[in-house]
Amino acid sequence: MSIRRGRNSRRLRPAGCLVFLAVVAVVIALVLLLWYLLAGRLRPPGPQPKPPERPTSQPASCPDVQMISVPGTWESNSNDDPHNPTANPISLMLNISGPVQSRFPDGRLDVYTVPYVAQFSNPIAFPPDGQQSYNNSRSEGAQRMVDAMTTQHRECPLTNYVIAGFSQGAVIGGDVASQIAAGKGPIPAEQVLGVMLIADGRRTGDTGPGQPVQIGTPPAGVGAEVALKGVNVPGISMTGPRPGGFGSLADRTFTICAPGDLICDSPRQALSPLNIIGSTMTLIHAAGNPVHSLYNGFVVDSDGNTATQWTVNWANGLIEGAPHPPHS
User: Fold this and answer.
1) Nearest of 71, 38, 42, 74 to residue 239 by alpha carbon
2) What is the pLDDT of residues 76-98, one digit of tens each?
3) For the domain 40-45+60-320, what is the CATH code?
4) Residues carrying an active site annotation
């Protein structure tokens, strides 16, 4: 009898191991699912309702032009004042929005700096770094920008717009501009005077229909989101190039990228979706690389203008030449 029990117990051991492995697999699957849910998925703003027909005048309180400034990673927060941003006093975009704002009276120009969390969490940090994921940050920034422009256009239907963004802000600003060009944005495309994207993570480096005008000598690489198209880890979705590019806004859209800045100048084949962890860590470190932080001194033309100076001059010219809509 004891011999038979021993043989039976040995026969049951493989089944017990299978049950244990199945439980482990279920636990791992649940942990991964929870990880993805907590990190958040990318939520691009949906198509906006068709705006009403343009009136012949707008309220006296409306500016002729509104400049939408979108700061980069770690340069803003969700509670920042859009008309007096102080979240990061050394934000690159302040080197643009500040000089432009000081040149024009309030009735001519309003500068709106998009307030959003502007973070990029390391998804494999342990313990967690306490930051919001790139997906959540980018989604909030895009929605805040769309909401602000929708409200402004409803109240001031004849106001025209200048859009400028840096780094994560360039991705956000470029995405909204692409939607506008496709007729799915918060304002009509004809009311966009111009778009400037500095260190755009979705830069293709291509020329031709739908592609922006490249300022300075364009580097050979592409934006990190293009190089890593298809990478999808908790909180980080690499969305590749913008479908259709910038459409009717392409000739009014400009881009600047410094050689060696991995955010916009990633080697086309170096960041592999097959090496998700390694590629993701490269992307995270790229946000803090020295080249990425030096656009205020990066010279882009033969006159010695830096990226920020060129953008200031460009924006000033657009605003000076913008229409003066009637006010009631």
Assistant:
1) 42
2) 999 999 999 999 999 999 999 99
3) 3.40.50.1820
4) 167, 261, 292
